[in-house]
Design a protein that fits this description.
Number of domains: 2
Number of helices: 13
Mean pLDDT: 92
Number of strands: 18
CATH architecture of the largest domain: 2-Layer Sandwich
Structural class: alpha+beta
Largest sheet: 8 strands, mixed
CATH class of the largest domain: Alpha Beta
RNA sequence: UCCUCGGUAGCUCAGUUGGCAGAGCAGCCGGCUGUUAACCGGCGGGCCGGAGGUUCGAGUCCUCCCCGAGGAGCCA
């Protein structure tokens, strides 16, 4: 008999099916046994009554949590069952019967314990919808760029120099030469965009920061795009279209997963329905100060300041034209106010923090040399990057979207560690 | 790096003024014909994070160390 997946069961009401999966939980009452089976696509209740084969009844009694099994029975619509359908079980074939109890019970657990058992934690109920939404977000990003003619071009993960100069890098030994894990693919995208026009990549980046908050991972994924002949305003329009597309696609294709996480997709769709507000850095500072959060003009926004902005708008909001002094060397200055950079951060609603950082890039070689010098960086490691300004320099812009923070916002997850299968956090490299 | 809170059974936690080490869940045994983290009865289960100190007596008080969580800064 051909096996079916639990997600498809509603199409098989009345017929006999074979399910393959794991025992999630079991309950009983007198001469009825309920076995909850999961297969990665969903969770369904199997019912075994006393008139079943005695060996099947005994198995329903004795199989422990997370035993793997094949189960045969008839699908029935049943309002009392979770999910609305259940299976009247006629056969159970154990595939593997654990000898020791599964470490993760169905009651509460502490975070440290769950993180130590992340390889098993991902089997638990809440985790599957989150990881499916992650898949949905990544597909939505790819489809957005593909539809718009962007070419996926990979940036290297092993690099010889820093992108930003400031952020801490993971050092490596590259056959005797110093190397690092990349903290951003951006500089390389600037090169590929001059070859292909419109480019993007999605990949892991690494920050050796001692950050210990619910919004930080040491290893996280960035979706970065770069487009030639795109100016600052066009850059913001592109980012806005991307975020709107991702939210709408996930809301449409993952409504069941969002519902399982008790995330109201109406709230998400409302947040992206209207154009995203744009405020300048200096306007944002005033708004933050008016909200009673302490900060000085010239400083970058801290978490409380971002939250204040996030609450003020209730939608994603662009903060643009930061002081160039607190931004990286590669950002182009605003010609009308040369102390400001033509850049923007996109702050997600509901306190999920910054999800995009982007800018128009410096296109003149002299200007780039000057800004490298101001940042205290030697031009030598950036020779190839300077070359991009020596042959056919064009105005160009790009941005990087934090994939996990975007998932966190869309799925409504309090801590970023649940948005990636194996989170790398401060001092935690296991499992 | 800094600040705060924790570490007691496999898990989640309680433990009074310093005086016999506890509960729920999980496991094992039994009961219940529709359970929804089922429920009811019984049984087994301990280096109280580590070292030192105070005391007749320390899970409890003091000192140092280790580990974890939350937050800050930095960032996406």
């Amino acid at each position: 008999m051909k096996s079916v997946y639990i997600a498809e069961l509603s199409r098989h009401v009345g017929s006999e099916v074979l399910l393959q999966g794991w025992l999630y939980n079991k309950r009983s009452s007198g001469k009825v046994r309920f076995v909850l089976v999961r297969d990665g696509t969903g969770l369904v209740q199997g019912v075994v009554t006393s008139d079943a084969d005695p060996t099947v009844f005994a198995l329903a009694d004795s199989l422990p949590q997370e035993a793997s099994l094949r189960m045969r029975g008839t699908v029935r619509a049943e309002p009392r069952a979770p999910g609305g359908v259940e299976v009247s079980v006629t056969h159970i074939e154990p595939v593997h019967v654990p000898a020791t109890p599964f470490p993760i019970g169905l009651k509460e657990h502490g975070t440290g314990f769950l993180m130590d058992h992340r390889h098993l934690w991902i089997r638990m109920r809440r985790q599957a919808p989150i990881l499916r939404i992650r898949d949905g977000v990544l597909w939505a990003i790819r489809s957005f760029f593909r539809e718009r003619g962007f070419v996926a071009t990979e940036s290297p993960v092993l690099v010889g120099t820093s992108v930003e100069g400031t952020t801490t890098l993971f050092p490596l030994d590259y056959f005797g030469a110093p190397a690092y894990l990349s903290q951003s693919g951006q500089l390389y995208l600037e090169a590929t965009c001059a070859a292909l026009g419109k480019v993007y990549w999605i990949g892991p980046v690494f920050r050796a920061e001692k950050s210990k908050t619910r919004r930080h991972l040491i290893e996280f994924w960035m979706a970065e795009a770069e487009q030639a002949f795109l100016d600052h305003d066009g850059n913001l329009a592109l980012q806005e279209a991307l975020v709107r597309h991702v939210v709408e696609a996930v809301a449409a294709e993952h409504s069941r997963d969002l519902a399982e996480l008790e995330r109201d997709s109406a709230v998400l769709l409302r947040a992206v329905a209207e154009p995203f507000p744009r405020v300048t850095y200096h306007e944002a500072v005033s708004l933050v100060q008016a909200a009673g959060v302490e900060m000085e003009a010239g400083d970058d926004f801290g978490a409380p300041a971002e939250d204040a902005l996030s609450q003020r708008f209730g939608r994603p909001v662009f903060v643009e034209r930061f002081p160039a002094a607190i931004k990286p060397f590669y950002m182009k200055r605003d010609p009308e106010q040369p102390d400001l950079a033509l850049c923007a951060d996109l702050i997600a609603p509901e306190g999920y923090g910054e999800i995009i950082g982007g800018s128009q890039r410096v296109d003149a070689e002299e200007e780039l040399l000057h800004q490298l010098d101001e940042a205290g960086l030697s031009g030598e490691p950036y020779r190839w990057y300077l070359d991009l300004r020596r042959w056919g320099a064009v105005p160009h812009s790009g941005f990087g979207l934090g994939v996990e923070r975007t998932i966190q916002w869309i799925a409504g997850i309090p801590h970023i560690r649940e948005t990636i299968p194996f989170p790398r956090t401060l001092d935690r490299l296991y499992p």
